[in-house]
Amino acid sequence: MSKQKLLLISDLWGREKSEWIIHYTSILEHHFELKYYDSCELGAVNNISYTSESLHNQFINGGIEKAVANLILKEKENVSVLGFSIGGTIAWKAGLSGLKIDNLIAVSSTRLRYETEKPLTKVKLFYGEKDSYRPDNMWVQKMNQDVKLFLNEDHECYTSKEIAERICKKILVIMI
């Protein structure tokens, strides 16, 4: 029997600053067929000026839309997605635009706070409790979302091995 496909979509730093992804792949590769996407490549984001501000501005000024379109072009079958920060937002919007998603797990995807509709799939959201840009409780209730907060953690909590292990355990419970 073939393994279920799980896409991993990077945060705004893309492949260059994603050494932490091994915390996920080392666990998940035993259970899923993994495919990694660099958000910068998907969104045709120029990373010559490799600063948070430059990358963020490019994503919000057309990069997210390009990434969504490219992801939909690349993935024709049903998939599950684990997206980090901007990667979760890309997956969410791709789900709204026709990507066939069975499960969407978004970690620290703070831009979701601006979303007013949700994709028709199972969604699990993870945030650091101290991430000041995470969606507020009103949004969570209005969107009827399942959110897990990591106490005393900030936006980049997903880069820690301990948090990665906790997220992977949840993914295995949800999807296997």
Account of the 3D structure:
By secondary structure, this protein is an alpha/beta fold. The protein has helices spanning 22-28, 39-42, 52-74, 86-96, 137-142, 161-175, and strands at residues 4-9, 32-37, 79-84, 101-107, 122-128, 147-150. The protein has a six-stranded parallel sheet, sandwiched between helices. β5, α5 (137-142) and β6 (147-150) form a beta-alpha-beta unit. α1 (22-28) runs parallel beside α6 (161-175). The radius of gyration is 15 Å and the shape is globular. The model has no long low-confidence stretch (mean pLDDT 96).
Average of pLDDT: 96
Number of strands: 6
The computed structural class is alpha/beta
- N→C terminal distance: 13 Å
How much strand?
Answer: 15-25%
Largest sheet: 6 strands, parallel
Uncertain runs with pLDDT below 50, 5 residues or more? none
Could you give the order of strands across the largest sheet? Answer: 2-1-3-4-5-6
Specify the helix fraction band: 25-40%
The sequence of SSEs as H and E is EHEHHEHEEHEH
- C-alpha geometry: globular
Gyration radius from CA atoms, angstroms:
15 Å
Question: What structural keywords apply?
Answer:
176 residues, six-stranded parallel beta sheet, 6 helices
Task: Give the helix/strand layout.
Blueprint: E1 4-9, H1 22-28, E2 32-37, H2 39-42, H3 52-74, E3 79-84, H4 86-96, E4 101-107, E5 122-128, H5 137-142, E6 147-150, H6 161-175
Parallel strand pairs: 1-2, 1-3, 3-4, 4-5, 5-6
Helix pairs in contact: 1-6, 3-4
